[in-house]
Design brief:
- By secondary structure, the protein is of the alpha/beta class.
- 32% of the residues lie in helices and 18% in strands.
- The chain is built from three helices and three strands.
- β1, α1 and β2 form a beta-alpha-beta unit.
- The protein is elongated and about 70 Å long.
- The C terminus is likely disordered.
Length: 120
C-alpha cells in the first residue's frame, strides 16, 4: 500500500528535539551568567542552557553538579523526567589557589575526568 501524498496545508510530523541540554553551575552571579546568556543566543538552535541559582567556590560547584547529575539520573530511571545531557561548572581559574583539588571528587567516575580537565 502506498501513502497518500501530503498536501501543502498538512503539517509535517513533529520531530523530537535534537538540541543538547546543558545544566550549568557558575561561580559568579554576573559575568559568567552574561557569558552563558550570550553564548546561548548564538547557539540556541543547537543547545538549551539552564543556569543554576547556586553560586560558590569551584569545589562546591563541582560537588553540587555531581549531586545534581546523580539525582537527575535517578529520577530519569524512575520515569520522572529526563536528565540533562551535560553538566558544566564555570569559574575563574586565576582566583583560586587550590584549583587542582576540584577534580578530585570526580576521580574514578566514568567520564568525569574529562569534564574536570576541560575547565583548566
Amino acid at each position: 500500500m502506498t501513502r497518500k501524498p501530503r498536501s501543502r496545508t498538512q503539517r509535517a510530523p513533529a520531530k523530537l528535539s535534537t538540541r543538547r541540554t546543558l545544566y550549568v553551575f557558575t561561580e559568579g552571579t554576573k559575568t559568567e551568567v552574561l557569558y552563558l546568556q550570550h553564548w546561548n543566543r548564538l547557539f540556541r538552535d543547537r543547545v538549551i542552557v539552564t543556569i543554576d541559582d547556586f553560586h560558590s567556590v569551584p569545589l562546591a560547584l563541582v560537588r553540587a553538579a555531581s549531586e545534581r547529575k546523580r539525582a537527575d539520573q535517578r529520577e530519569e530511571k524512575r520515569g520522572r523526567g529526563r536528565a540533562f545531557d551535560e553538566y558544566w561548572c564555570m569559574f575563574d581559574v586565576d582566583e583560586f589557589p587550590n584549583l587542582p583539588e576540584t577534580g578530585r571528587p570526580l576521580r574514578g567516575r566514568p567520564s568525569a575526568g574529562a569534564e574536570a580537565g576541560r575547565q583548566a
